[in-house]
Amino acid sequence: MKKNDVILIGVVLILSLLSFVAINWYQNKSSDDMQVIIRHEAQEIKVFPFNENTDEVFVFVDEDADETNTIIIKDGIVTVEEANCRDQICVKTQSISKNGEIIVCLPHQLTVEIYAKSGEFELDGVAE
Amino acid sequence: MSEKNTSVKTRRLVFISVLVAQAMILSFIERMIPVPFIAPGAKLGLANIITVTAVYMLTFKEAAAVVLLRIILTATTFGSLSSFLYSLSGGVLSLLVMASIVKVFRDEVSLVGVSISGAIAHNIGQLIVAAFVINSFLIITYLPILLIVAIPTGIFVGFVARFLINYLERINFRK
After folding, report:
1. Is residue B175, in this structure, part of any structural domain at all?
2. How are strands ordered across the β-sheet holding A77-83?
3. Residue A24, min C-alpha distance to chain B (Å)
4. How near does any CA of chain B get to the CA of A37, in Å?
5. How far apart are CA A23 and CA B172, in angstroms?
6. Owning domain of residue B147
7. Same structural domain, A102 and A39
8. What's the total number of domains in chain A?
9. Which of A18, A43, A104 has the most B C-beta neighbours within 10 Å, making it the best mutation to test the interface with B?
10. What is the pTM (predicted TM-score) of this model?
């Protein structure tokens, strides 16, 4: 290890902490009209209004590809409870509850996102 | 003279092949090691030990051959098309970043710095492809935690690569 390595590590740490703060600030801007958007292959397949009282279970099934994900919305948090994807990353990812949070299942190209409807910071729409 | 040239070429070819084989085995071992789940995409990056070594000891073209062969062979033996895309984008970006750093700052940055930069480039490359696949840039919010994870894994990979390079230089594999 050299001095420049330590500098590099310091810069990386500072950058990541700053972006943590920025992301947290954005995510904590709570709103009254939040919604959970479930997308498959970038297409919206289901939208739920989202608040503390939302109690929904959504089972995504793609019969052709034999893909399923079970998404539970309860007590103000959204969880992917079960999935038959090979990496199980969506199941292991922490539950989400804030604006702009996302759970991704890359093998199934499925995403679960929370958005405030009136969000000024529209972050999605890469290929539009 | 020409005989000696052929011998050097053959040795380099064998050296490249050995590195590719080692990287494949390391990718395979990495899949078997149970690591605690920290964030999507966070991993040890054992194959990066070989990329760092290749970038350090070989020319850019040879190091690129090591990386591309490892990615193609790993994808065809234990992977799928989508995992191939992710490892290709991560692997190519980290190769470019590490090769530039070694070229420009060879004496100012140690292998630890090189491997941390490579790990970060790898994460960024994968996140960009993932963002396009799912059509949502929100996935970039995973980057800060991945940056932090890149530090300890990068230090580990850098130290292991240092050991490996010391051995390889002792047995004079290249000449």
Report:
1. no
2. A56-62, A67-74, A77-83
3. 10
4. 12
5. 50
6. 2-170
7. yes
8. 2
9. A104
10. 0.88
